[in-house]
């Protein structure tokens, strides 16, 4: 073998070793988990973009479901709650949008698949009031846990005050729902 052939073989082996290491690294990396059936799965340090996505979808769901409740609910107490929740959630959405502008990360105007599915179920429900209340208890509880977690462990100093502002509003909504 000539010196040139030895270099080619050495180079080929080196490239093959690098490729094998790269593929082994890719194989051991965790693949992203499928979307949860609940949005309360929170890592120890919640990323700003994940927080923004869940919080914005939760607020948008609450607004749309409550707008439906204003039209379809037979309960005056649920309609009153819905009216109050629309104002609260628009306020939270506005704060998310304001903070998002500072981060160049505006909240989406689209619901996450879980929230869209719940809204679709609500629209088709024959027992609107019962389902609306159940869904609001669930989504409000999940949003409360999300905002509390981000207020204490979120990595964005711009979004933490938004989460801290939203948590007591959601705690009040949760108490109102429990009283209904």
Describe this structure in words.
The chain is built from six helices and no strands. The protein is mainly α and 180 residues long. The protein is globular and about 80 Å long. Helix 5 runs antiparallel to helix 6 (160-179).
Q: How does the helix and strand content classify structurally?
A: mainly alpha
Low-confidence stretches: 9-37, 40-44
State the end-to-end distance: 87 Å
Assign a percent range to the helix content.
over 70%
- In N-to-C order, the SSE pattern is HHHHHH
**Averaged pLDDT, please?**
82
Strand content: under 5%
The radius of gyration computed from the alpha-carbon positions, rounded to a whole number of angstroms, is 24 Å
Q: Count every helix, treating DSSP H or I runs of 4 or more residues as helices.
A: 6
For the biggest sheet, the summary is: none
What is the number of strand segments? Answer: 0
The coarse overall form would be: globular
